[in-house]
Amino acid sequence: MFRLEEEVLGWTRRLTREARLAPADAEELASHLWDLIENDLYAGVRPEDAFARARSRMGAEADIAAEFAIVYEEEYMDFEKQITESRDDPPALEALYRQKPQAFTASLARVLERFPGSAVLSAWKARLSYAPFLADRRKELRDLLTLVGLCLLAAFLSKLPLAWGHDVWKMDLAGGAVYPRNASFFFMPMIAAFYFLRQRSRAWLVIVAGVMFLAAFVGINLMPAQAPWQTRALSILHLPLMLWLVVGLAFAGNDWRSLPVRVDFIRFTGELFIYTVLILLGGGVLTMFTLSIFKLIGMDIQHDYVSWVGVVGLFCAPIVAAWLTEKKRGLADNFAPVLSYIFTPLFLVTLLVFLLLMALTGRSPYTERESLLLFNVMLILVIALVVFNISERKLTPISRVYDPLNAGLIAAAIAIDAIALSAILGRLSAFGPSPNRFALLGENLLLLVNLVGLAVQYVRYFARAAPFSAVENWTARCLPLYGAWLAVVAFLFPVLFGYA
Amino acid sequence: MISKDLTAASSSALLLSILSESDSYGYQILQSVREISEEKIAWSDGMLYPVLHRLEARGLVSSYWKSAPSGRRRKYYRLTAPGRKALAAQREEWMVVDGALKKLWAR
Questions:
Q1: 8 A C-beta contact, residue A312 and residue A159
Q2: N or C terminus of chain A with fewer C-beta within 10 Å?
Q3: What are the residues facing B79 on neighbouring strands?
Q4: Do A239 and A489 contact (CB within 8 A), yes or no?
């Protein structure tokens, strides 16, 4: 029995193996062979005869091989010649590499033999033949194992409140709000530990961070509270932000005083946030899918699934995100600056329109407590945008365009902050002191310091009185101030205001 | 039948001319060559491809893969702008040869 397809396949294989044709070229020839065969079959020729005729029309395989060998050699020589000619022209070399990466790698060795002194070509060789050192691979493995261990710990801790009968579903302030109060402790110490384990930090730093976490944990859980639960709500809001700055201490390690490292931490925060959102989005899709397929077989697992897989996943996501951010650091472009480039102009337009409408209509949004908090979040976002914009500033034209945009954003934010401050002062004098009003007052004053500082540094930079790094480092300088104030609101306010 | 040397010499002009009409793949190109030369120009089918690849390496044609209805992939060739220029130059040369021979044989 004659098997046509196998015969053609065998013929193609001989072209790649014996005649050493590139697979794509063999495929092209095989396609031609099929056209010839099909033509004959259509005319009623027997398959074996059609195959024999097509084969002889294609020519002897040895001839094809010889002819293609010449073509390959020509292409090869041609490529080698191009590399040789561009050996002192890095951009041209890069273009050649992008055109045919494999041929480039193959030709490079031969060109380098003829020009062993070429530094550019040597650099290319080092780049292309780079294999991570064994120590790096060990470090990667150790990071991965650390991650798995920390995630298991997070899973264990996040389900521990169950032992005392605290369910994740009970979130109201009067009922203790165990999960909202403790959420930070289910992942932030793990991220801090991840950094402490990665870099050799001084023991006292580890102890300070550990004590801070422990004290915060004991403090927030033993803190009494009573209606209307204002101080508890404030503590729950401010504690995670304060603890995040403790994570920053772990991130910076021995360099905790260094301003560039602190800027790095702000950038890390942006990246981590984006990775976490992406992971949680993926988790959300997986959850929906899982719940639906279980519903298909008549099982409703929503409650158990969310309180186990959902909760554990939620707290592991930022830890995995920290590991991912660290893994990608220096390899890929950061997400946060790219997003901030996109959103800076949009944000600026929004703020300007908002300010304009507020001035025209004479309406102030600062009568509601929620709106005051919302606007603080917005001001923090503005500062984050500016930090991301300037931290990726590489003196490219696009960065220059963003300098005035940043300045405009800062100016608009200062205007909004000023309005917020006047509203808070108005409420303080009209309704008397309350924990919320004092917390907002402190925060808006701090944000004002940060924003005005940024503006001053920018003006100095535009006047060529200060280097750009002064702008960059200003927010980093403010971080300890934020930390101190957040700690005051989280722990001192309840005491000062009688736990109300 | 046309001699081997002349076949080789004329191959690039023939291929570029066929591709100047429309994009095409190897089998179809050969069919056109056979048809237009009334079977007098006959290449061994396998030998067409090295020629095409050389034209591609010189930048006169570019190629892309396209799936036929049968599901098999075919590599199509397309004339590039430099290819069009090269064809015009070659056409001039062949015209000169053609005109000279015609004049000589008319005497």
A1: yes
A2: N
A3: B61
A4: no
Give the A window 62-101 contacts with B, CB below 8 Å: 63-64, 67-68, 70-71, 74-75, 78
pTM of the predicted structure, to 2 decimals: 0.63
Note the Cα A189 to chain centre separation in Å.
Answer: 20
Taking only the tens place, the pLDDT of each residue in B22-65 is 999 989 998 888 888 888 887 778 888 888 988 888 889 988 88
Residue A220 has pLDDT above 90, yes or no: no
| Closest Cβ opposite residue A71 in set B25, B53, B75 | B53
Distance CA A461, CA A469 (A): 9
Q: For residue A219, give the H/E element and its range.
A: helix A203-222
DSSP string over A431-492: H---HHHHHHHHHHHHHHHHHHHHHHHHHHHHTTSS-HHHHHHHHHHHHHHHHHHHHIIIII
Residue A34 contacts residue A12 (beta carbons within 8 Å): no
User: Which pLDDT value is given to residue A59?
Assistant: 85
Contact (Cβ atoms closer than 8 angstroms) between residue A486 and residue A458: no
Chain B: nearest CA to A91, how far in angstroms?
A: 21
Six token digits for residue A326: 């660290």
In the prediction, which pLDDT does B3 show? 81
Question: Is A402:A389 a contact under the CB 8 Å cutoff?
Answer: yes
Confidence band of B93 (pLDDT split at 50, 70, 90)? very high
Q: How many distinct helices (H) and strands (E) make up chain B?
A: 4, 3
- For B91, the domain range is 4-106
Kindly state the percentage of chain A with pLDDT values over 70: 93
C-alpha–C-alpha distance, residues A191 and A198, integer Å: 11
Determine phi and psi for B74, rounding to 5 degrees. Answer: -125, 145
Closest-CA distance, A323 to chain B, in angstroms, reads: 41
Any idea what the CATH number is for the domain that residue B21 is in?
1.10.10.10
The pLDDT > 90 percentage for chain A reads 24
CA distance B16 to B40: 19
The pLDDT-based confidence of A133 (bands split at 50, 70, 90) is: low
Identity of the amino acid at A368: E
In the three-class reduction of DSSP (H, G, I as helix; E, B as strand; rest coil), residue A45 is classed as coil
Answer whether A57 touches B (CB < 8 Å).
Answer: yes
Write B90-95 long-range contacts (CB < 8 A, 24+).
Answer: B90/B12, B90/B13, B90/B16, B91/B13, B94/B10, B94/B13
| Total number of residues shown for chain A | 500
| Chain B residues inside the 8 Å CB shell of A78 | 57
Note the ipTM here: 0.86
Number of domains in chain B: 1
**CB A336: neighbour CB atoms within 10 A?**
25
Euclidean distance between CA atoms A292 and A300, whole angstroms: 9
